[in-house]
Write a structure and sequence with these properties.
By secondary structure, the chain is of the alpha/beta class. It is built from 9 helices and 9 strands. It has one domain: Glycosidases (TIM Barrel), CATH 3.20.20.80. The protein is globular and about 45 Å long.
């Protein structure tokens, strides 16, 4: 029996466990209920079939879709990106960095978000400087620095040689979990020399199950917007992720990823809230 045939059998028990341990009505560190912090997803081929409509109907505000990892393209990216275009969720893409593989910093295929969580047998310093090179590429192309996804202890190791201004010129997406798998309410461990207002998103659980019908996988990542409630999130995105001429505002506001459009992924998109 393969894994895909086992998951439907054990998922009801898995959901039952999380109904017991998860407490979405707990007060989070920013004063909101966990359930009231805007929910985001990140999806990849690990989820198998993903239903973007189920995500949106259950209040997911945005999704980061894996475009590539190492030197390999995620085969589900075109499918998932197109699915997201039929919803009112924000959408963007990410690349999982494999430091042991040759990833030239001038390559075109570098999405807006960089997932950095694998050592790959290389030095801490090399990871830090590879990230800096990729950041320069994205800044040159898009006019904005990338978001880095990682864990606090890894950021402290790999970005130790960056100066404080460079750290605070980026936004951060941090992963912090509870051993139970339930969503972490915070407070989170802030990386050294990173200001709290530069932390956009906290991945609060990597083991919690999806909404019924959302994904084939046993679990899905739960990410919470850290800088306020939904209205504050929308205002922040409007103020900070709008680049270019006014006529580009609509596509930028709904897509937040110039890279995907340069790769031909420019499917029509329903504006958030409409």
């Amino acid at each position: 029996m393969n894994q895909s045939s086992i998951i439907p059998l054990i998922k009801p028990l898995y959901r039952l466990y999380f109904n017991i341990v998860d407490q979405p009505n707990r007060i989070a560190s920013n004063g909101l209920l966990i359930a009231d912090k805007p929910l985001w997803r990140d999806v990849s081929s690990h989820q198998g079939e993903w239903d973007a409509d189920v995500s949106a109907q259950n209040g997911v505000q945005g999704v980061f879709i894996r475009a590539s990892y190492g030197l390999i393209k995620d085969t589900r990216f075109p499918i998932n990106y197109a699915k997201a275009s039929n919803t009112s969720m924000f959408r963007s893409s990410y690349h999982a960095l494999y430091p042991n593989l040759s990833q030239h910093p001038t390559i075109e295929g570098v999405p807006r978000v960089l997932d950095v969580e694998i050592q790959g047998g290389v030095s801490n310093e090399k990871i830090g400087w590879d990230c800096w090179d990729l950041s320069r590429v994205i800044l040159s192309r898009d006019g904005i620095r990338p978001i880095f996804y990682s864990r606090t202890n890894l950021i402290n190791l790999w970005f130790a040689l960056w100066d404080t201004n460079d750290l605070d010129n980026h936004f951060w997406w941090l992963a912090q979990y509870l051993s139970s798998g339930a969503e972490h309410p915070g407070p989170y461990n802030l990386p050294n020399r990173v200001s709290s207002d530069r932390v956009l998103i906290i991945q609060t659980s990597s083991h919690k199950p999806d909404f019924p019908g959302e994904a084939e996988s046993l679990s899905i990542d739960w990410n919470r917007w850290e800088l306020g409630n939904k209205l504050q999130m929308l205002t922040w995105i409007q103020d900070n992720w709008h680049i270019g001429s006014p006529q580009d505002y609509g596509s930028w506001y709904t897509d937040i990823d110039l890279w995907a459009r340069t790769q031909g992924f420019s499917s029509p998109h329903i504006p958030p809230g409409g």
